Amino acid sequence: MNKNFFALFLLTAVSACSGLMAEQQIVVVDLGKISMETQEFSTLRTKLEAEIKEKAQAIEALEKKFQAAVTNLQTKAKDMTNAALEKAQEEAGRMQAELQVKKQNLQAYVQRVAGEVETKLVTKVREICKAKGWTVVVPNALYADASVDKTNEVIAAMDAKVAKAPATPKKA
User: Fold this and answer.
1) Separation CA 23–CA 136 (nearest Å)
2) What's the pLDDT tens digit per position in 91-116?
3) pLDDT for residue 163
């Protein structure tokens, strides 16, 4: 919210001073649309979703194993010796702790990767905007006239860079 307020403040200040300064090119880009529609970020998103799904499935399998152990413990507890009961409880506790750690690690991974992707996106958009000579770029404006919305232009430029980039060799 503070970034958008600052951007609007900056936009207003630049607009107010436009008579005193050289002509400014103030544009708007939709970072969400860019991340969803560019080839590079679409491919990256698909790859990351597959990685996260794989990690989540491993957690789900462990969670099912844990639930089965708890159910087994509840149904057989009265027939178990104290030593067997204690061992089963320790195993269930270990599984629960492992499950919690894996969930926390996945959450941290998702947050870290999301931050890295956002940084990469902003960097690439910034490079394109500078190359086009736009002096002020407002991301995700609440409202902007279509004449200043340059989102599609940025998407086209990013996709053109991907098309020109040499193919990376596949790992064997």
Assistant:
1) 11
2) 999 999 999 999 999 999 999 999 99
3) 79
Euclidean distance between CA atoms 120 and 5, whole angstroms:
23
**Both tokens of residue 51?**
């990685």
DSSP calls for 41-76: HHHHHHHHHHHHHHHHHHHHHHHHHHHHHHHHHHHH
If one compares 34 and 8, the residue with the highest pLDDT of the two is 34
* Global pTM exceeds 0.70: yes
Q: At what angle do helices 82-132 and 39-76 cross, to 10 degrees?
A: 170
DSSP the chain: -HHHHHHHHHHHHHHHTTTTSSPP-EEEE-HHHHHHHSHHHHHHHHHHHHHHHHHHHHHHHHHHHHHHHHHHHHHHGGGS-HHHHHHHHHHHHHHHHHHHHHHHHHHHHHHHHHHHHHHHHHHHHHHHHHHHT-SEEEET-S---GGGB-HHHHHHHHHHHHHHSPPPPPP-
Query: What region does 143 belong to: left with phi over 0, alpha with psi -120 to 50, or beta?
Result: beta
CA angle 14, 19, 21 (to 5 degrees): 65
C-alpha triplet 30, 163, 161: angle, nearest 5°: 50
Extents of the domains making up the chain: 2-164
In contact, 112 and 1? CB cutoff 8 Å: no
